[in-house]
Amino acid sequence: MFNALIINKDEQGYRCELQQLAEAQLPPENVLVQVDYSTLNYKDGLAITGKGPVVRKFPLVPGIDLAGTVIESAHPDYQAGDKVLLNGWGVGENYWGGLAQFARLNGDWLIPLPEAFSTRDVMAIGTAGYTAMLCIMALEKHGLTPEKGEVLVTGANGGVGTFAIALLAAKGYQVVAATGRPELADSLQALGASAIIDRSELSQPGKPLAKERWAAVVDSVGSHTLANACAATKADGAVAACGLAQGMDFPATVAPFILRGVSLLGINSVTRPKAERIAAWKQLAQWLPKAMLDHNTREIGLSEAIATASDLLAGKVQGRVLVDVNR
Fold this sequence. Notes:
By secondary structure, the chain is α/β, with parallel strands linked by helices. 29% of the residues lie in helices and 28% in strands. Strands 3, 4, 5, 6, 7, 14 and 15 form a 7-stranded mixed sheet that branches. β12 (233-241), α7 (255-259) and β13 (263-266) form a beta-alpha-beta unit.
C-alpha cells in the first residue's frame, strides 16, 4: 500500500483526498516508478481544487511532474534503478500523475535524469523551469540576443516567471518584471530583474499599438496582458506565450503583427519531443543559478498539497512548491 492524492467526481461531488492505494490499482503502463518528488503547478492547483476543467478521467492521481527511480520496466530504454523525470504528456490530466509514492507510466514520456541534477533538483525546477527554458530557446531561435534590448517577463512572481528572470539574467539579458506584488520587488531583483513594473500597466484594455519597448516577452498571463505586451514589442521582436493566469482570451488586433512584424510564439510544454526536452534540460543545467533551487523553493509533504493548491490559486504562493511525496 502507498499514499496518493486521488480526485473523484460522482454523486458526492468533485473532491481530492489523500488515500492509500495498492500497486494493482495503478494503470497498466510499461514502467513502474517509485516517486521521490513531485510539484504543484498552476494546472495542478486547478485540478486539485476543481476550479478548472483540467481532469478528464476519474478517478485520477493529479501531478503533472515527477522524478524518481524505475522499479520495473518493460520499456527498452529503461531498467530497474534508472533515475528518471517526467513533465507533461497529459499526466495529471488524462493519466495518473506524480502526487503519489508510486506511478506506472508509459516509458516514452520519461527522460533520463540529467547528471547535473538530483531528483529533488529537477522537481524544484519542474514544468515551470522547463517551460521558461522552452520560451527562451524559442525566442533565441527567433534571433533574440542581449544587445537587442529589454525582455519583459509577466507573471513575474509565478513559477515560470521567476525561472525566466533568473535564466535570462544569467544569459546577460536586461529583464523587466511585471508583478502584482510590489512588496516582493527585492526578491525579483535578487533573481536578476533590472526593473519592476506593476502588472496594472498591462492588465487593462490598451491601444492596438503602444510605444516600442520590449525586444521580447515571456508571458504566462494571457488576456489583456498578452495583448498589451505584443502592442509594445519592438519591430521584428517576439513574444513567447505559455500561460493564461489572467485569462484564455486574447483581446488584441493584428496591428503589432502586420505593422511591426512582431511574432507570437506559442509554447506547448506538454507534448515536446524527447530530443527537445533533453536539450531544454541541458540548457537548464548550464544556465540556471544553483542557488535558486533553494532560494525559490518551498517544500511540503503530500498531506499538505490540497491546502497549498488553494493558496496557489489565490496568489499566496511565490516561486516553486516542491512536494516530497514520502512525507
